[in-house]
Amino acid sequence: MALPILYSLRNCPYAMRARLAIFKSQQPVALRDVVLTNKPAEMILASAKATVPILVLSKIVQANGKKGAEVTVKVIDESLDIMLWALNNSDPSDLLHSANPEILTQMLALIADFDVEFKRHLEAYKCAKRYHEDNLADCRAACEVYIQRLESRLIQHAFLFSAQDSLADIALLPFIRQFARIERQWYLQSPYPNLKKWLNSYLQSPMFTKVMAKHPLWLDSGKEIVF
Question: Structure pTM?
Answer without folding.
Answer: 0.93
